């Protein structure tokens, strides 16, 4: 792809041109347009033509024949193009025929841009929209970018932006020009699940021809948001990447980012996947905006309400719930579990082993490489057990009974233990109790209860403290209060209340801040919020969802 000029000025042969009448020197043409008044000479071939027709279709010829250029008065004009390229022009002007194929697209674009023929240009743009695919995407991107057509193409086709990461992982990316790489990185609205993939694109491209390309490393890296790279990647850059080690400025930037993340929970992430009953959205915490996700990637197999979602080893799991828009019957409460591999950008949701019990309104957490669920409801029966999923064996196992059956509760893991908090018991009473389960020994203990009864609460751990956020209960109704639990002192205390009453939200931690998505307010609207423990303040962020969510996970 590198030697663009040479390739774009040559055509492999006449077989690439549409089969049509090439006899331009016939009586019908001379009757309609008069006698030929110019001869275009290309290589060893002569094309008889009309200045007026050439000027009507081509701004290049219009300028040539209407200005004081010497060609205006010449009968024979020599052009340094191939015979096949001139045939494209003549076929189009005199026969109104233009066939754009994968074999001749380079020459057709070259003709359209050099001779400034808008109609041929429009056909080239349409060709991209109708024919681009994963295998030819980088070749076409290089071609259209060379002729400064890429932004016009992007206005008609979102293919490259929607499949951005699979596209840049193609082996052909190493043969792109520097301008191509910069144009790719600068594309707006590109779907990027990992800044690491953009970094890999740059590194692989530079190392393909290190001596020639290392001079461009700093400039290309400036297109990345290095703060979105995981800490492990930054450390790897610093320790093992010579391109970074040999660049004082980049080395200092990377060192600064690593130091700024020390002692911060969740600092390896910057985006949050928000999972609703049947789809996903993605929030960028650094840019404070929602990101686009391709439909095939974001849609779950089954629409399910009152389910839970967690992430384990960069795989997303959505468990249980009940079939949305179905009657509340036991058979509509699900045991099924769906999984999505976040490492594979072409992945779709797949079913894994079913849970042993039907569960909705349950809680889930990750501990020691396994997924745990607790409690929940099967319509007429409250579930009172723990269950564990081993992804390596793709198998669920039932564990011990809970101290007290609960639903609409929340659960987190901390220091090898599971904490189930609040919820509703079988008598529909809201709970303030907290039980601590050791899944290895099977022991379950009750620790200090919360200050308030809470169901449909959000729960998260930040800086070695557990936060119970909002919810609802039988006396106060909707809650705006927030309390935190100190594991060392076994005590609960209040912190700054929420801006609004909120229940049913899901919480996670990114870069030392708590995010709560999908909380429902007293007026039946939904709110997303973020808490900064240093400032001690809550802040609302843009909300796209208009329904309860099943999980929010950092990625």
The tally of helices reads 19
- The name of the CATH superfamily of the domain at 271-554 reads Kelch-type beta propeller
* Count of β-strands: 29
Please identify, by name, the CATH architecture of the domain at 271-554.
6 Propeller
Query: Major β-sheet, in short?
Result: 4 strands, antiparallel
Question: The CATH topology of the domain at 271-554, please?
Answer: Neuraminidase
Kindly report the oligomeric state of this protein: single chain
Low-confidence stretches: 3-27, 263-267
Average pLDDT number: 85
Class derived from helix and strand content: alpha+beta
Share of helical residues:
25-40%
Beta fraction of the residues? 25-35%
| Rg calc | 32 Å
Widest sheet, order of strands: 6-5-4-29
CA distance, first residue to last residue: 34 Å
Tell the overall outline: elongated
The first-level CATH class of the domain at 271-554 is given as: Mainly Beta
Structure description:
- The structure is a single chain.
- This protein has 555 residues and is of the alpha+beta class.
- Among the domains are: 101 residues, Potassium Channel Kv1.1, Chain A; 284 residues, Kelch-type beta propeller (Neuraminidase).
- Helix content is 27%, strand content 26%.
- The protein has 19 helices and 29 strands.
- The strands form eight sheets. Strands 6-5-4-29 form a four-stranded antiparallel beta sheet, with no helix packed on it. A four-stranded antiparallel beta sheet has the order 8-9-11-12, with no helix packed on it. A four-stranded antiparallel beta sheet has the order 13-14-15-16, with no helix packed on it.
- β1 and β2 form a beta hairpin.
- The radius of gyration is 32 Å and the shape is elongated.
- The protein starts with a helix and ends with a strand.
